[in-house]
Amino acid sequence: MQMARNAQILDSKTIDELDELEDEEEERVLQEYKRKRLQELRDNASRARYGEVIEISAVEYIKQVNQAGEDVWVVLHLYKSGMPLCTLINDHLRQLALKYPTTKFLKSISTVCIQNYPDKNLPTIFVYNNGELKDQLIGPFAFNGMKCRFQDLEWKLYEFGALETKEKLEKPEGMIDARNNGDAANEFLKSAIRQSMRGDDDDD
User: Fold this and answer.
1) What is the pTM of this model?
2) Family per UniProt (predicted)?
3) Which of 56, 140, 151, 198 is least surrounded, with the fewest CB atoms within 10 Å of its CB?
């Protein structure tokens, strides 16, 4: 019935009146598209809040990692100055931070963040979400040494779920996927941070 009435109304219109209705409908569709697009841009802007690799200390760990925010992915790199592989990973992370601004990228000199953290475990990357450890890469073997390419590290973090993408990433050709168990390193991290926090309280 409604469609029939609409048809009768349209049939009673002149060509000029129909042209006006068409213009009004196109304007309405355009305005709705603009509204949705602006909302999408606002949403993206509110999420794209990082875009850089932030240097932190042990004292800042709780705030930057555990209190990063709901559903925020955090990538923490423990490194040592002058170690070529750590420098390479830092370079890759800088590029990744620009490409994936919704992920929070952090770095910390290993012995500044964790006292006596062993060099053999470097580079170390911990991946967190909602304050919980989700995955890790520990030591040169996990990165395939100096052969670690940007796309290799990107794929590893994507596979962990730490990178937000509109399109599915494909595993890089020729990539060697080496993994190891980082539970011991993670426990070392937790213990050292607790000791550091207690030390700061004693100083106060």
Assistant:
1) 0.68
2) Belongs to the phosducin family.
3) 198
